[in-house]
């Protein structure tokens, strides 16, 4: 068993899904090499509300996700876990959360855009779904 498998099987969080999701969020937040305070707060709020975690659990999950990212070969390892647990509607909502994270700093970087496309594809959602989620989030944030 690899170190990543050990991390993904961590029973403290009782769900691989939490770790996989946190890892995807961190990858997106750091994809443009600028992890702003707005992105950090959006990421924390998303994780807390998505999994009903308190501050300590959220920070611990993010610390473990940092380690998981260092041990991973690709984002597919995390999106594969998400595919096992989420249905299409939940994956669509997750992509909306990802767009909220991307737009937290009001800037869409080409690396972020590329990674969102890759994640959406890995989650087996259509390009149309990715664009619809993006437009919903932009409208909600007043960025239209």
Automatic annotation (TrEMBL):
Q: What is the protein's given name?
A: Protein containing DUF1332
Q: Which domain of life is it from?
A: Bacteria
Q: Which SUPFAM superfamilies match?
A: TerB-like
* CDD domains, A to Z: terB_like_2
Q: Which residues form a coiled coil?
A: none
In terms of InterPro entries, this protein maps to: DjlA_N, TerB-like
Name all Co-chaperone DjlA N-terminal domain ranges: 18-134
Matching Gene3D superfamilies: TerB-like
């Amino acid at each position: 068993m690899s170190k990543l498998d050990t991390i993904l099987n961590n029973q403290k969080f009782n769900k691989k899904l939490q770790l996989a999701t946190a890892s995807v969020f961190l990858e997106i937040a750091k994809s443009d090499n600028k992890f702003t305070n707005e992105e950090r707060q959006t990421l924390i709020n998303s994780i807390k509300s998505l999994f009903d975690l308190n501050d300590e659990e959220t920070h611990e999950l993010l610390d473990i996700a940092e380690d998981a990212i260092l041990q991973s070969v690709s984002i597919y390892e995390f999106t594969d876990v998400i595919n096992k647990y989420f249905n299409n509607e939940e994956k669509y909502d997750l992509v909306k959360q990802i767009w909220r994270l991307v737009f937290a700093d009001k800037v869409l970087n080409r690396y972020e855009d590329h990674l969102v496309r890759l994640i959406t594809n890995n989650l087996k959602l259509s390009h149309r779904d990715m664009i619809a989620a993006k437009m919903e989030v932009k409208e909600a944030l007043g960025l239209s």
